[in-house]
Write a structure and sequence with these properties.
two-stranded antiparallel sheet
Amino acid sequence: MRDYDGDLRRLMDAAARTEVVRTPRQLLLTFGVTKLDYYVVTEPSYSEVIPGSPEAVVREGRVSAQRPSVVTPGYMSRLEGFGDDAYRYFDDLARQVGANSPGLLYSYSNEPGEMNIVEGTSREIAERINNRLESDDKSHSAVIRGVDELWDVSLLKFIFEYTMASISANVDELGSRGLMSPDPRHGVPRAAIHRIESLFLRAEHGEDPTELKQELDRWDLFERYQDRFFGLFKRRVG
């Protein structure tokens, strides 16, 4: 039988032992894709059982963050892949703040790169990498000291903290353009209508309209756009 409490304690311990040595100078872009190079430096898991000169494991990779999407509790409740408890939470949130109360959704992808073992403690190596990045003026790089067997948890802690530091600026920038405000015709955030229009434009130029259909369904807007949507196929046949 799986020990879920034990697993949670391991994850929390790994997060608590994680240190972000270098944070990217630029916050997450509001209207573009943000690409960040990372270096996760750890003490190798075998160091306690195989004595010798200190060594560190350096994992390199790149995290890409898509432009933040304006979402609502109602929108989130129509996404697939969550458990029953999550859907109950979305429903309760919709009752508390409104089904169309706007928030931001951040999407990330991780591209792992090289892994190397080098001489020195994790702290020494992390500082060495940080100093090199500083001299090379690498503003889109992060250096993280983490836990070897749970290094991806250390990476996630960095991503979470970096996202939290960016939210306020992203919300302000979206708000200044009126994209967080509801569209008077449809009652959903204007950013949602902008995205739908962008997907229609792409479909009109021959792209697969599946993503457009999904987005209309998630915003519960398909009935309002169905004539225009089906018109895409008539235009192709014609």
